[in-house]
Amino acid sequence: MDPYNPIALFFVAALCFYLLTQILRINPWIGFLSSIGFAYSTFDPIIIAVGHVTQMLAIGICPAVIAGLLLVYRKQYWTGAAMMTIAFGLQASMTQHIQIIYYTCLIVGLITIIFFIRSWKQKALPEALKALVFVILASAIGFCTYANVLLPDREYATETMRGGKSELSGNAQNKTKGGLDKDYAFDYSYGIGETLTLYVPGAYGDGNLARPFPDESKLADKLEEIGWPEDRALQFANESPYWGALPIQAGPVYLGVIVGFLFILGIAFAKSWHKEWLIAAAVVGILLAWGKYFSVFNYFLFDHLPFYKSFRSPSMALVMPQLALPLLGALGLDEFLRSAEPKEIIWKKFRTVCLVCGGFLVLALLYYAVASFKGPHDDAFHQNFVRGTVQQMARGSQPTAEMQQQANAQANGIVKAMEQDRESIFIQDLLRSFILLTLAVVLTGLFLRGKIKALPLLISLILLSSFDLIAEDRKFMNEDNFLDPVDVESFFAPTMADQQIMADPDKSFRVFDETGGSGPFNDSRSSYRFNSVGGYSPAKLGLYQDLIEKQLSKGNLSVFNMLNTRYFIQANSTSRQPEAHRNPSAYGPCWLVKGLNFVPNADAEMQALDSMNLRDTAILRSGIASKVPFQPVWDSSARVRLLDNRNDELSYAFAAKSNQFVVFSEIYYDKGWNAYLDGKKTDYFRVDYLLRGMAVPAGDHRIEFRFEPLSFDKGTKIALIGSLMAYVLLGTAVWRGARSSKPPGT
Q1: CA 5 to CA 60: how far, in whole Å?
Q2: 457 has a pLDDT exceeding 70
Q3: What is the pTM of this model?
């Protein structure tokens, strides 16, 4: 089975969580119930639907890591360490999603802190320290098995925007040394009020993946009144319900009202020490998710918590309560069903649980009563609508006050209808949560009164929770999200623009595609076939990000030329179909310059790109002037050309009668790219802010660049050692388990 197939992802998540519940010795039926709650939280189908399958797999494996840790702390040292090693290794190697692994480590840290506090109180610190040795060993081996990728990635990260790599000066007020800018890192912070979605999914409207209005919508009706086609009006209405704080939201994080009820039940009834770290994990995850809306806490952590400054999208931290709520709910329900406490105490706790759960719904109802349902982007929509409507009415003539008034009235009506749709979603989901919660409370109360047995109660809760979550999940992942293989292939079918470019016999160029819906630096379609100036990466090299922001975004053609951009793909003004426009000024894969211009710093280097003739002059930093062996002497007969371009090796032919300086249209990265002149290693320099340059003496030479990162070689050796140690650890665990299972005397 493909591990990235959606059904496989849900299965892995449910299986790993079920394994965790069984290690905690929870009733198997309750384990099944809570596994559904973990695996089918709406966060999971949403990230699958938008393509973040490795993130989902990392979330799914997380409970197995926790299961191994808890075995170690239960003094099953070898078995727990083996499980933790394997789970950490799989989570790292199969997903490479470091941010989810980081949240897993945060949970591990919280468990360890609570465990040590408990051990100190019980005067059992020696045993706790012994367990910690096994935990550190298991974690280290698990990560070592992945070192051949982890070390180069870590090395690369320091040079990216996530490592804070930029040499430009500017406003450093909201920057963190060695990490992302806070404005960028905290852009996807979950609003404090938006936390209601954990309990009432539509509290802030459904995201743009959902289709809450299959037939009727106030907004769609209003748009149809002003002449919009029915299909277009309904499509726009379905894209507009979200009014929360995130820049864009595919769908809300909803953990389930039944899971929420069981979580409160767990707080009331669970007696084990696990309750403490589970509550801590839930609270910390929510606080982290608030991001910039709780900046006094989160900015401090961002500046001081190791490695945290490399991550963005704080809302992702909600994976911590996603694990904590159903697990504490399972512990609490298990304790509740077999509680030996007097009936009056059980009833008192149960009434408190009901009051707390009902209080959340009352809070949501009060919020509904005072909410404006006005989104942060509504004003911009209003202004754009008015502007476009007035221009359409005027048809080239001078707009009148009457036109402005009419357009304003239409925009006001549309925004009002938009708010009514949002209000409708909120109250419908609030009513839905109330009904489901009432059913769960009544069923649990019937069990307490002896009217039904435990098994019918559990089956009923499984059905209710499954309906609660899966019905909500289907808004974001359903038949419409799945395509036949033919349809997938058709997406990559070459356009007319692609065919134009593919007809070029010379492939040593780059393409800049401006037709992607998400922008040239967030759309990677052209990279499927061509070397691309744009494309998407969540961890661009910091130098390249600087160039995007300071040069490419303003259309500096000289910079596009030095990046060897031979084709621009643009939409035809009439048909809107993509067309390829050849750029005859592209400099090619390499060229000789007539002179060198030394500048004092990065700001001057970037500024020089605005006016310098980059075809004739290379810009270098003055600090390396002493390392450049000579100035070029122009030779009109000199030549340099690309011979071969492979992923990890490039070769060039050079011939000149005098000393020259060559600029290569390749991104500078000295963490592995080595230069060779006639087989001998030589120096190269960073020029034109982010390209490579080399001083080459007169004569005929072969120039090569080879990607030879020492971190990869080192990581490969560590990974081999780690893998061998993992096998030894696993073998020892199996041997000790088999030995302990033998009857005495055998």
Answers
A1: 13
A2: yes
A3: 0.89
Q: Cα angle at 120 between 319 and 317, to 5 degrees? A: 10
Q: Note whether 450 and 549 are same-domain residues.
A: no
Which tokens sit at 544?
Answer: 């390249």
CB 468 within 8 A of CB 436: yes
Of 438, 469, 500, the residue that ends a domain is 469
Instruction: Read off the tokens for 369.
Output: 């009563």
Q: pLDDT tens for residues 329-351? A: 999 999 999 988 899 999 999 99
Asked if residue 351 and residue 251 are part of one domain, the reply reads: yes
**Backbone torsions φ then ψ of 203, nearest 5 degrees:** -60, -35
Pick from 21-25, 393-397, 459-463, 585-589: least confident: 393-397
pLDDT-derived band of residue 177, with 50, 70 and 90 as boundaries? low
What six digits make up the tokens of 375? 């989104």
- 104 vs 733, more confident: 104
CB neighbour list of residue 716: distance below 8 Å, 6 or more residues apart? 147, 148
pLDDT tens sequence across 263-279: 999 999 999 999 999 99
The 3 state secondary structure assigned to 373-434 is: CCCCCHHHHHHHHHHHHHHHHHCCCCCCHHHHHHHHHHHHHHHHHHHHHHHHHHHHHHHHHH
Helices (H), ranges, 145-294:
147-157, 182-185, 218-225, 230-238, 257-269, 274-290
The number of domains in the chain is 3
Query: What is the torsional sign of CA 175, 179, 181, 183?
Result: negative
Residue 539: the pLDDT is 81
What's the Cα-to-Cα distance from 541 to each of 175, 276, 536, 690, rounded to whole Å? 17, 41, 12, 10
Has residue 48 been placed in a domain? no
Residues 297 and 388 grouped into a single domain: yes
Q: How far apart are CA 452 and CA 353, in angstroms?
A: 20
Q: Are residues 451 and 514 in the same domain?
A: no
* Integer Cα distance of 328 and 20 in angstroms: 12
Taking the C-alpha atoms of residue 717 and residue 720, their distance in angstroms, rounded to an integer, is 5
Q: What percent of the chain stands above pLDDT 90?
A: 64
**Residue with tokens 């989902």, as numbered in its chain:** 56
Phi, psi of 566 (to 5 degrees): -85, -25
pLDDT on residue 576: 80
Domain check: are 287 and 407 in the same one?
yes
Residue 30 lies in a domain: no
With CA atoms as reference, report the closest residue to 157 among 183, 181, 178, 175.
178
State the Cα–Cα distance between residues 676 and 678, nearest whole angstrom: 6
Tell whether 628 is covered by a domain. yes
User: In the structure encoding, which two tokens stand for residue 13, read together?
Assistant: 């998540």
Distance CA 178, CA 112 (A): 28
- Identify how many contiguous H helices and E strands the chain contains and give both numbers: 25, 14
Neighbouring-strand partners of residue 692: 664, 686
- Render pLDDT for 82-116 as a digit per residue (tens, 0 to 9): 999 999 888 988 888 889 999 999 999 999 999 99
**What is the average per-residue pLDDT within 123-150?**
91
Both 383 and 249 in one domain: the answer is yes
The answer, yes or no, to whether residue 180 has pLDDT greater than 80, is: no
Residue type for 369, please?
Answer: A
Summarize pLDDT for 384-427 with one digit per residue, the tens. 888 888 888 877 778 888 888 888 888 899 889 999 999 999 99
Whether 284 and 412 map to the same domain: the answer is yes
For residues 613 and 694, membership in a common domain is answered with yes
Task: Report the mean per-residue pLDDT for the chain.
Answer: 90
Domain range for 545 is 489-582
290 contacts: CB under 8 Å, gap ≥ 6: 189, 190, 191, 192, 195, 297, 298, 314
Task: Give Cα separations from 352 to 257, 261, 356, 431, 702 (angstroms).
Answer: 17, 11, 6, 22, 80
Planar angle of CA 701, 706, 707, nearest 5 degrees:
165
